[in-house]
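Example record used in the benchmark description.
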Amino acid sequence: MSERKNIAKSSQGKSLGAKTIKHHKRGSIFKRFVLASLTMGGLGQIISLSAIAQLTPAGTPIDNRATGSYVDPNNPGNVINTTSNTVRVTTAPVAGITNTNLAFTDVNGGNVSPNDVLNFDFIVTNTGNFPSTLNLPSTANIATQNFTITGYQADLDNNGTFETIIPLNTAFPTPATIPAGQAINVRVIGTVSPTALVNDPVSVSLGNTGPNDNSPNTQNRPDTNGTGFDPTPPINDDNATNPNDVRTTGNDPVSGLAPVNGQREAAAIRSVPVGSSVQNIALATVLKTRSNYVPNTPVTTDDQITYRLDMRVESASPVPNFTPTSLQGTLISLEGAAQTRVLVSDAIPAGTSFVAGSAIAPPGWTIVYSTSPTTSLPIGAVGVAANWTATPPAPAAITRIGMVFTGNLAPGYTTVPTASGLTFTVVTSGLAPAGGTIANIAQVFGQTLGDPTNRIIYDESGDQFPNNFINGTTPPTPQGSLYGPIPTQGTAPNPATDPTGAANGVANPAVHGTDNNNNNTGTEPAGGVGGTAASGGEDNVITITTATNITNGPNGQAPGVGPTNNTDDFTNLSTPIAAGLNPGATIDPPAVVFPNTFQNTGAGNLDRVGLVPLPPNAANAANPTGRQAGDMPDGTTVRIQVPAVGANPAQDVTYTYNAGVYTQTAGAPVVLNGIAPNQTVNYTVTVDLPAGTQQSSDRFIALGSNTNAGDRSGYSVPIVAFADNNNNGFDNDPISNTTIDRVYTGYMNLLKESRILQGTGPAVGGANGTFSTANKVAAQGNIIEYRLSYTNFSTPATAGSSGNGTLNASNFVVNDDGTVAPNNWSGLTTHNFGTTATLGTLQFFNGAAPIVGGDPASGIAVTRYQNTVGTVVPAPNPATPSGTFTFRRTAN
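Model output (structure tokens):
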């Protein structure tokens, strides 16, 4: 089957002769080939080009960083400053190359079979910033499996015709330089081995750049000593003139200088199994989150959990052998009759029951219920699978809830932007008195539109990957879905075809793994298909604990509820940060005082109430973000002060943290007696971090700026209030509750990135054209686009939480001044029209004088940019910036 019709044309072409290479303008045919590559190659084939090497002093560095200031509205006198990283752009010639498999064509169509003639196409791109000659290996040095090469062609002018016939067993340097940003296409023609068996790989490796796996590590690598791997016999990438390399050659023809990062090489491999063809497939993803949790009374049997389900049909494939297409319905039993529907199904979690009237569906979908046992399958024929109905049964009888869609859903469809998705609530009516965990997983079912085999498409929630792909890149079966087909109306899918054991949609966290962050970012446990772990989704799990007779929380909010439950409610506060403090610099911050409150929520007096600090990873506090003992620096002191309460005198105790343990170093432990029912007690916690403490923004960056980084960027001090009934002076008594006092040393991160646009200068290639913090190169006339992303990474309030002390950043202002060291961009570049900001207002200055009239025209002197943002709330997901500010400068 042809992946691209114009590639399936005749392989005839002209011999080399005196070839004239045509170079089309950037964005024309080359752009179409890139788009074709991305579309047909899928997500797994999109290459992130490697950052260019460290630049040498030969060029002129242009440095840029930004500064910002803001205040904590709860402490407006506390001015907090922040400084971005510095990005550098240097003018110098840089070589670059990528090599990507573009397509393969089975000339006679159909499945790949022995003796078939196949065309393997590759696109080789000069991603450097100067014209370069590209060198291709001879066919004798192209590694293959079960494939004999009979032809070798190139399309040097990007017009879709392979006009250049390359002699077999002859290395091929391009007869003219390839401009920066332009590409050539290479075709390897041959026949499948007559002895190849079904599922044997048929592969071609163009180039040899270890690890030869189409990862970024195979792209734009130094053409120097190293070790690669190809099928037997091994071919090692052991010198700069290796005959099996695809590499750049030559110096910058303009300056005569060699590229500062040396010559580069890249490799691509394409493999298709015998018996395969490019397959149209619907790629469905189901998403599940807990949108609210209400603990209700102290007993564990009346807590309410609200879930939201969404689904989408992907428009890009994770693997190249699949082409995304529409999702249509599959066979279900609806109202006792066989019906064809797209179904999103969710088994009511064990220990809970459905809350009547709580279900809401997105537009176009119908809510359905089932009372069939959860041992049945959600889909299949009447009398075999679960029966669904649109009439709500008695809540206690409902075993599954779902929503159905009649018709086809095209690639790109999603319910995520809708107001509700499928929302429903359950009550923990069957939970044990001691509490426990509630686990849940959702499923989506359908079929690929036009699939003659009727193979069922299904996915389980907990991650971002369609069709239960294993960690996003590996299909669960070669057909792209674990379920088999329903060949006739009387046949149900066989659970044996689903190695997860979750064909019925019942959660099993020990096997499935869990979505720890409640945001569909779970990952596949070790093992996968055929291993010891399941291949599928990850369970959404919440732990319900028995209510204690103490609640302990932020100031005046003793019953506070955190992101997980009432053991991780929190108060966030920040130290000041001085202006001009560089990223990476450590500080000796002043002490921070937290006001907290605990309350006796029981029916009788509480005696021997204690308050102690715990390590960040203490079991007493919910820890979905993976806080570790090492998150708190040694030498930190925590002082707990309680005023006189009734007959209890004022109390004052200090603990010092070292090697994961708090040791009492001053005063006496807190002991409070006679705390009456409903009585609240206010106390303070003073946290003093030691000299050498990291800035929180540096911790945020070091943690990868991910969904957990916001919590762990702060310095968390769980404080447990407990009734010391066994008089052991420790917090292992059943009557206890924890709140978290979290110190940030600043909580706004500034990330400065740059990219190069062509402008009136030479074409831009490789990583130069992509926003990143990496060093870039630019020539005269290139446009340097600077982007500043800012993020309030402090822990936010989440759905279902209450009473927490969050940190807004008020009066947030960003400045980028090209005249203040280390910035020097003002004198080396010129303003280019196109300044943007997602929030707030923009101001422009030439020296101290403001420039009126908005974004000045290109060429106007601008030496400083200012973005007055206002208030920035904590980011719901700190991996996503709160806002951006972008401006452009033309290299002089």
